[in-house]
Design goal:
about 140 residues, alpha+beta, 3-stranded antiparallel β-sheet, two-stranded antiparallel sheet, 5 strands
Length: about 140
């Protein structure tokens, strides 16, 4: 694994090399990723894309289910068991949200934005060479 520097514009416009950032294999598509409040697209193979979108979906679902459990528990607070049960479920949802967030960050390359450039760390060597223009 190595690092690569790409422009925000090329990542937004899907102009990156058609190689997976994870495996260096030919990419099947682009996964939307948010970094520093900017939506960019990283090239991935289909199994990698499915993993990323699954983690993103699970992350959203657990956040919303935790909020819904707290709201339901507050609405049903007149029953003595409901509020503590809702708080316990909301805490479990928050824990699962945190775990999926960590898994997503560990699975994707580490990304930092510096002006109009994005530094990707933990990318495949073939992708980094293609970005640099090496043959």
């Amino acid at each position: 694994m190595t690092e690569a520097v790409i422009s925000v514009a090329s990542a937004r416009e899907r102009l990156l090399p058609a190689l997976s950032v994870k495996s260096g294999e030919p990419a099947d598509g682009y996964a939307p990723v948010t970094v520093a409040n900017r939506k960019i697209f990283l090239p991935l193979t289909q199994p990698e894309f499915d993993r990323v979108t699954g983690l993103q979906r699970r992350n959203r679902r657990t956040a919303w289910s935790g909020v819904a459990c707290l709201a339901f528990g507050a609405a049903m607070a007149r029953f003595p068991v409901m509020l503590p049960l809702a708080i316990a479920i909301a805490l479990l949802s928050a824990l699962q949200w945190g775990l999926t967030w960590v898994l997503l960050r560990a699975y994707l390359p580490s990304m930092t934005v510096d002006g109009g450039r994005i530094r990707l760390v933990r990318v495949h060597e073939q992708f980094a060479a293609a970005v640099r223009g090496d043959s």
